[in-house]
Amino acid sequence: MAFVIVSTGALAGSGLRTVRAGRVVMTVIVLATLLIAGGGLAGFHIARAIATPGPSQALALDPARPDHRALIERVGALSGKLLRLEGEALRLARQLGLTSAGQPPADAAAAESAPSGGPFVAALAATRSTVAQDVDGDLARLGRDLERLEANLGLIAEAAVLEDLDRMAFPSRAPVAGGRISSGFGNRRDPFTQRLARHTGIDMPAAWGTPILASAGGRVRFAGFRHAYGRTVEIDHGKGLVTRYGHAAKLLVRAGDVVLPGQRIATVGSSGRSTGPHLHFEVLRQGRAVEPRLYLARAGNRGEAG
Questions:
Q1: Degrees (nearest 5) of the Cα angle 195, 200, 204?
Q2: What is the Cα–Cα distance from 255 to 270, expressed in whole angstroms?
Q3: Which of 24, 30, 70, 169 has its CA 20 to 30 A from that of 282?
Q4: What is the pTM for the complete model shown?
């Protein structure tokens, strides 16, 4: 999975832009469906343009004639562009998991085989000139269709980038290997006083010097010694979402650094108010500590490594 950092300065002063995944996915589904369905229609126009009509409409394309050669070259160029666009659309659809985007709706197939009727009216005899005009008109329409498809493909690619950015900024990755939790979020017995106290994060035991990894991408807003937390790193992920990593032995980043998901930001230690080497991990939403496991549980749904 590729991750993208976008510097906009618009979110919580972090320079990181995030979007809601649901809205992006819905946009991508609609655009991918339109693009692939449009590609099928364009393919039909190409087939119609290059097919040899029946005996009464014989339109033999002679490559020796300049006008016919130009028509053949035009069809070839449009066909190549269509194939390129359809290939790119399918690649994006697979990347976003839209495996059924290219399937026609069930009622479309039923409509093709539905009963039909009407009075018989003799077909008008087509001349060579009218057939040539029809083909030229089809190619003009195909060119316009391909321009619209190309524009839609650009929107799909942009939506895919935004979806990657949304995944990158969500703290769903375990900040230490293994991710074992020895003390959970909420009320517990304080390890020093044995009195009931509120624990604002989760404790993850690990050997001294074990790498501490960024749970998501963002900008480091603090890196230093913070009282009971000891050596601490805080990362701003935008939209009021912050992760905090406490009791580190050594800090590997500084305030202002932009970090990627899974990047080493510190090493496990026991600085501050701590009884042994472990990571104290917090998730802050709008400045308030929330249950970190609700975020870490999303890793499996997003197909990300913990």
A1: 95
A2: 21
A3: 24
A4: 0.55
Rounded Cα gap, residues 163 and 145, in angstroms: 27
Residue of 271, 282, 45, 35 lying closest to 142 (CA atoms):
45
CA pair distance 54, 247, nearest whole angstrom: 82
Lowest average pLDDT, out of 3-17, 133-147, 192-206, goes to 3-17
Give 204's strand partners.
279
φ, ψ of residue 141 in degrees (nearest 5): -65, -40
Domain that residue 212 falls in: 186-302
CA gyration radius, the chain: 30
Q: Residue 21 pairs with which residues in a beta bridge? A: none
- Indicate if 295 and 190 belong to the same structural domain: yes
Between the alpha carbon of residue 295 and those of residues 110, 128, 170, 173, the distances in Å are 45, 68, 8, 8
CA distance 206 to 89: 45
How many other CB atoms are there within 10 angstroms of residue 287's CB atom? Answer: 7
Q: For the segment 162-220, what is each residue's pLDDT rounded down to a tens digit?
A: 666 677 889 999 999 988 999 999 999 998 999 999 999 999 999 999 999 999 999 99
Position 29 pLDDT exceeds 90: no
Q: Which residues pair with 266 in a beta bridge?
A: 212, 251
- Whether residue 107 is found in the same domain as residue 245: no
Q: Does any domain span residue 265?
A: yes
What's the pLDDT band for 275 if we cut at 50, 70, 90? very high
Which residues on adjacent β-strands are paired with residue 224?
232
